[in-house]
Specification:
The chain has ten helices and no strands. It is an all-alpha fold. Helix 2 packs antiparallel against helix 3.
Length: 186
């Protein structure tokens, strides 16, 4: 039997320990990448469930994807869209309110929030949101017709007539004009 000097044995023992520890630790950042990849998979799975109208499952996947900072806004927005599809107006209002607070000039989020507010029966809030949109951009037919509809609901007929006239002038072929006219005459 060959005897190795003590220094050599110690050196080999240290090398074996170092290799063992480094192989257990893995590549730096690898776990973070695996976790991020998992959240992206949840997001993709949410999209798949959403496309086949399984909104509960989609929301569950998007909620998991929200744990990734980079995916948070996209996944949270998709939760709001799914909530609208499910007519879960409270959840949808929570989501769109978050985005409006983040960017108070985002027309898409303001329109979504106003619609959800109207569905919740918060017609005053919806009217205020539509009015804000109307004052900033009255060239959007959705803003005009929805603002007119909530004004009719609030029995603010004079203002509703003005908005309807603007809708007729700017978008004479809009299919909702007749409906709004008949509601105003009731």
């Amino acid at each position: 039997m060959v005897r190795l000097p003590r220094l050599t044995v110690r050196f080999l023992a240290v090398c074996v320990c170092a290799l063992t520890v480094s192989s257990c630790a893995g590549i730096p950042g690898e776990n973070a990448k695996k976790t991020q990849s998992l959240y992206r998979e949840f997001y993709s799975l949410g999209q798949e469930y959403e496309s086949v109208k399984k909104y509960d499952r989609a929301i569950s996947c998007y909620e998991k994807a929200c744990q990734d900072r980079e995916l948070y806004d996209s996944a949270y927005y998709r939760i709001g869209v799914c909530a609208v599809q499910q007519k879960d107006w409270l959840k949808a209002e929570q989501v769109f309110s978050y985005f409006v607070k983040k960017d108070s000039e985002n027309t898409t989020m303001l329109l979504s929030l106003a619609y959800v507010q109207a569905q919740l029966g918060h017609v005053d809030k919806a009217a205020a949101t539509y009015e804000m949109l109307y004052l900033s951009d009255s060239s959007n037919p959705s803003v005009l017709k929805n603002y007119c509809a909530v004004l009719i609901e609030l029995k603010e007929n004079q203002k509703a007539k003005e908005v309807l006239e603007e809708l007729i002038q700017k978008f004479p072929d809009d299919s909702s004009i007749q409906t709004l006219r008949s509601k105003l005459s009731d």
